Amino acid sequence: MMNGRTESVRRIQCLALASGRQKLILHVAGVEMQLTAAASFLTVLQEESVSIHTYAHSFLQVILLHLEHRDTGVSNAWLETLLSVIEVLPKETLRHEILNPLVSKAQLSQTVQSRLVSCKILGKLTNKFDAHTIKREILPLVKSLCQDVEYEVRSCMCRQLENIAQGIGTELTKSVVLPELIELSRDEGSSVRLAAFETLVNLLDIFDTDDRSQTILPLVKSFCEKSFKADESILISLSFHLGKLCHGLYGIFTPDQHLRFLEFYKKLCTLGLQQENGHNENQIPTQILEQEKKYISVRKNCAYNFPAMIVFVDPKNFHMELYSTFFCLCHDPEVPVRYTIAICFYEVSKLLNSGVYLIHKELITLLQDESLEVLDALIDHLPEILELMSTGGESSVQENKLLSLPDLIPALTAAEQRAAASLKWRTHEKLLQKYACLPHVISSDQIYYRFLQRMFTIMMTNNVLPVQKAASRTLCIFLRYNRKQEQRHEVIQKLIEQLGQGKSYWNRLRFLDTCECIIEIFSKSFFCKYFFLPVIELTHDPVANVRMKLCCLLPKVKSTLKIPADKHLLQQLEMCVRKLLCQEKDKDVLAIVKRTVLELDRMEMSMDAFQKKFYEKDLLDQEKEREELLLLEMEQLEKEKQQNDGRPMSDKTFEKKRRDTKTPAALPKSLPVAVAGPSSGTSSTSKEIKKSKLIRSQSFNNQAFHAKYGNLDKCTSKSSAAAYTPSVSAKTSVISLTDNSFRTRNANSVPASFSPNTPLPSTSRGTGNSADAKSSGKDAQPRKATLKSRKSNP
Q1: Whether the predicted pLDDT of 33 surpasses 90
Q2: Comparison of pLDDT for 785 and 510, the residue scoring more
Q3: Does residue 715 carry a pLDDT above 70?
Q4: What are the angstrom distances between the C-alpha of 149 and each of 137, 156, 162?
Q5: Is a pLDDT exceeding 60 seen at residue 685?
Q6: In angstroms, rounded to a whole number, what is the distance separating the alpha carbons of residues 251 and 204?
Q7: Out of 82, 350, 368, 709, which residue is the most buried by the measure of CB atoms under 10 Å away?
Q8: How many CB atoms are located within 10 Å of the residue 220 CB?
Q9: Within 10 A of 730 (CB to CB), how many other CB atoms are there?
Q10: Angle at CA 666, nearest 5°, toward 660 and 667?
Q11: How far is CA 129 from the centre of its chain?
């Protein structure tokens, strides 16, 4: 069908270019050919296939000839083409070919269709002529059509008055257009009155304060009073334009008028819900259904205009004036109304500012809504909403308001489960992506116990790939901002054992996806320490798809290495690539291996010292690494503080103290990156230094949680970067401490699936040369994770 239509377009274009023949062809053409011809003529204009002069000479008369075609669809198609042509035609052509014939076409003796076409053409011509020509030649036609005997013509001309007013200026609008609008607003036809009202609302900005207060406000007041007695379609339009009306008339209402207008809005918000708005006994079911649809549209429009009404009453008066209305809209029985208020929820939260706590319960209500459409509309701005609610509050007390909202976490988990149980996987994917904001607003423990395990479950059991990848990335962000070393250790071990060494090849593919996210979100040293060896071990995977995906990831894996510290890792990577190149039997995998080898050879290695070409990337990686080290330091200092105080610090208390500490504009540039070990001097264990470190760590934690997931400041000076470039031994000291603490954690807290003696694969940089590693008596060489050969379980 499309090929036939395209061919018709080409044929019409060719025929149209043959001067004089198109009239004969279109005269006998059917509806389909007429519609194709109108679209073709418009295409010729838009593509500038011919000059404007040639177009006017060859095409314009054909377009004008078919404006009054007996088929309404064909007539409208040719009219749309003509309105586009008017934009580019010169004034003289417009005057002689269009405006002059329009005088006769707009007369009462012509057909209704001819007069309707004249109304629309006049609205378009106004912007093409000067004020004198408009006043002398166009406005008399406009007045005549506004007084037409047919209500359809009056309504059509009324809707064109907005375009005409913008073309003739303020003075002529007040003297010519406004009187016509006032008269049309009292017309006997409801469609004419509605058109006059909508045009007045759209032209409010043109009129001054006197016109608004003395002329327009009484008309609006009368229109609102009569709207309930008129057709419900008028109420639909009135409710839709209510916000614009409030904005345009703001400041001229008396207190009584302000109150009456607000009460009118509240009444519209519950239209059809109250007993007095019930149905008459004489109405038949079809009429009842139509009336219900109109009532739903009115309430939906009221929800759309709710932010404007908050401005109208002032956010300070929200609780007293509009909260009950907001409650009704959030609990409306119809999905379109709740969907619309969910879309507006973020705007409402911004307007309320410190009063956002008032709508906590409504947020929970919408999160628990039975309709996934409502949930989908709400989660578009869920991170911003939760951040506003976590920082806003009734008083100046620096306390996370979400901690006093116990229903939030159950509502979030229930929302995810409902999305997972449905067939709307895009909503589920979006929700998981938005969950990445949770480190902003709730504690690390709450995320670990209520959300992290769920991310694992989705990654391993869900059948939709985009959903699995969204869960994987969100899990990485949860891990990035987790404040407890023991929990981080368990998550890393679980990723390696259940995904990287999983029996199903699908899980191993997801492990590679997760590693790609880790490379992006974490520092290079973190990836090399925990995930480098498990990744390259997959070069021996029995499933070709896993090896293919690994080959595509190898360039990113190599980019995490720094020379000379990671020379031994580079050697292992090259050895694995050589084995693939020599031993691979699958031709598809081999082809990818060859391309990967060429790409790896072209890559330039990053050095331990800063290089000019990698300066920004190295600086960003150093920021990530320093944040990771400070998280470890913060936990260590917190443990020491709890031991000294003799009592544990609750998560809530710590969050409060963390927020009480002012966040610096940037991280301290001379901050040490190593945690002081037990062999440090006595001065390093003094209470004053520990206190300062704790405050500094808390400040970092505050800043890290409010960073946009790794978008760190890239403008730090080179000298500052050099100031805290850690030495190899310093890095080794911290990483060794971290690894030892992982191995000696309490076995009682380990899940049954984890063995407390199972070490994580560690590839600490510089361990072979570290004095600390040698003195510890432990094997300082990198430990290679052994993976048993396994059969795939697709």
Answers
A1: no
A2: 510
A3: no
A4: 21, 13, 21
A5: no
A6: 13
A7: 82
A8: 23
A9: 19
A10: 80
A11: 43
The stretch 666-674 carries a mean pLDDT of: 34
Cα four-point dihedral sign 326, 328, 330, 332: negative
**E strand or H helix that includes residue 652:** helix 651-660
CA atoms in the 13 A half-sphere facing the CB of 256: 1
Nearest alpha carbon to residue 333 among 376, 364, 284, 295: 295
The model's pLDDT over 632-650, given as tens digits with 9 standing for 90+, comes to 777 778 777 777 765 555 5
Residue carrying the six token digits 């389909």? 32
Cα–Cα separations (whole angstroms), residue 595 to 545, 555, 598, 600: 16, 11, 5, 9
| Residue 375 to residue 379: CA distance in whole angstroms | 6
Compute the distance between CA of residue 730 and CA of residue 766 in angstroms, rounded to an integer.
Answer: 10
Strand residue runs (E) in 567-693: 606-607
Q: What is the pLDDT of residues 177-191, one digit of tens each?
A: 999 999 998 888 888
The DSSP secondary structure of 132-181, one letter per residue, reads HHIIIIIHHHHHHHHT-SSHHHHHHHHHHHHHHHHHHHHHHIIIIIHHHH
Query: Could you tell me which residues come within 8 angstroms of residue 15 by beta carbon, excluding any fewer than 6 positions away?
Result: 21, 22, 25
Half-sphere exposure of 635 (CA within 13 A, CB side): 17
Least confident of 58-62, 356-360, 761-765: 761-765
Q: Scan for tokens 């507006």, then name that residue.
A: 344
- 3-state DSSP of 471-513: HHHHHHHHHHCCCCHHHHHHHHHHHHHHHHCCCCHHHHHHHHH
Q: Could you tell me if 158 and 146 are in contact, meaning their C-beta atoms sit under 8 angstroms apart? A: yes
N residues, the chain: 794
Among residues 170, 172, 142, the alpha carbon closest in space to that of 156 is found at: 142
Any bridge partners for residue 563, and if so which? 607
Element (H, E) at 563: strand 562-563
Residue 492: burial class (beta carbons within 10 Å; 0-12, 13-18, 19+): buried
Inter-CA distances, 553 with 492, 536, 547, 573, 707, Å: 19, 10, 10, 12, 27
Averaged pLDDT for residues 703-723: 39
